[in-house]
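Final report, Chapter 2: Outcomes

The project's central promise was a pipeline that accepts a single protein chain and returns its three-dimensional structure in a standardized token representation, suitable for archiving and comparison. That pipeline is now operational. To close this chapter, we reproduce one record exactly as it appears in the project archive, with the input sequence first and the structure output second.
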Amino acid sequence: MKRATLAVLVVLCLASTVLAEITITTPTEKLEAGRHYLLPVNGLSATDLARTVVIVEPKETTSAVGVTGWGGEQYLWFNATDNGRRFIVVIVGGMGKPVTASLMLDIGNSSPDPPPPPPPLPGELTIVVVYESENRTPQETLVILGLRDYLIKSNVAYRLVDQHLKDRTGRAPKWFQAPRTFALKVGLPCLVIGVINPEGVFSVVDAKPLPDTIEGAIKLVKPYRDKQVRFTPKILIPIKKYSEVLVCTL
């Protein structure tokens, strides 16, 4: 009779250790490579810890060991030797179905920050689109005109110019020499981002191939539009109609 009672007590004790759920607390601070962190494991006892398996990935640069704190709390003693994404899985065996908990952590700059916006421009932002009229496709024309509408609504100065633009002397206007040089290096059609300073001198900030879509062209211009510094230039370059698009003449 005593043996039967003892057997029942043992079964009851084992049943009481069956876990319903465990969770790993996600750190709120930014984790750095090379440092150790205590990650609380909720719902886990010291007895459960003895039958717990911890799996980490990538295992070559990650470690996580179950430890018991002074107050009886259970933790994972976690460390990663380099930046990147880490995966932790805790499996508690015993009677019944194993109980698991998982956690994903980003160490350091595993997701690179986006590049900072360009600094304020020292002059009036001016967008120059350089193209070849004879080779212009319908899609290219659509993108140029769509970008023009965006620049007008955004109050941004612009020039839409054929690469063969010449002034009254038969040469490329002085202001156009720099954007034309960059455009020919990048390839036509080209979107040139620059500024005109108070003396009317055009300086190239960046030059990119003209995207195939209006949205793509706007995406290149928008960061500079948001940071521009405006002024009233001393030299105003008049605009007139030419070959379905606008060009600049002196």
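Archive annotation: The chain has a mean pLDDT of 77.
This record, like all others produced under the grant, will remain available to the consortium after the project formally closes.
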